[in-house]
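Supplementary Note 3. Input sequence used for the single-chain structure prediction.
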Amino acid sequence: MESKSNLLPKLLRGIIPPMITPLLDRNRLDVDGLERLIEHILGGGVHGLFILGTTGEAPSLSYRLRYELIDRACKQVNGRVPVLVGITDTCFTESINMANKASEAGAQAVVLAPPYYLPAGQAELLEYLEHLVPELPLPLFLYNMPSLTKAVIEPQTVRAAAEISGIVGLKDSSGNMVYFHKLQSLLKDHPDFALLIGREELLAETVLLGGHGGVSGGANFAPKLYVDLYNAARSRDLPTIEALHEKVMQISSAIYSVGRYESSYLKGLKCTLSCMNICSDFLAEPFHRFRSTERDVIRRHLEKLGIVKKQ
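The predicted structure, written as discrete structure tokens, is reproduced below.
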């Protein structure tokens, strides 16, 4: 399939959900669930789709399964919105291979966090990008995720990376608004460099203060809520922002905080989609889906939030 990279706007704005990867077992996609999920997300009016990120469990998936997901997602989306594909890897060559696969399948951009395991220094990160980007067939978004990669892409490094042709934006999942504001200040002379927030609890203030949108996990199951909040923030409709932000915070407290481990966010997302009969909630090992006790808690929260009907 010919790449549709021309579908990527000069400045990517809006809600770009980081899609979960529906699984039936450790190396098999829930194909029917994937199709329902994509249509559910796109039906909410989102502005893009990001696959194989943190929420997509990319580091836990085989390369065969990642390639299958890229093919299926790009074919189904079929140019309706830009598709962004995560290519983060500890191996330079595998990141290139993933990017080539994304381009062949018809994706519009790729997304890269710093290689994890042994943390790189800032000079090493910049040199890595200088070597990698010329070999990429698609535009690149940087991904700042220090809690999982053990490396912050420092503001000055982002500023220098913005000078590399082909790097078009950054998703920040640090939750550090001081960091985000520093990026905005440093990149004032790069108005087409997209700054997207990962933490959905910060979506409203990010857009109000000039950010370009959000990569919001909750948009897997409530896409319209996040799109409406983004639109309200862009139009500075403060009463609507306040009401919708409250709903986002209720979701954050009710869905992402069940369980004891850092994986609870992902378990809550997948459990919610399962309760909505959209897709399976199987997680790639070493993680597992919520057991019946936690699932019952999630379902009660969803009933209270009006996301699923009471049984």
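Confidence is low (pLDDT under 50) at residues 1-5. Strands lie at 14-15, 23-25, 28-29, 49-51, 83-86, 109-112, 140-144, 167-172, 194-197, 213-214.
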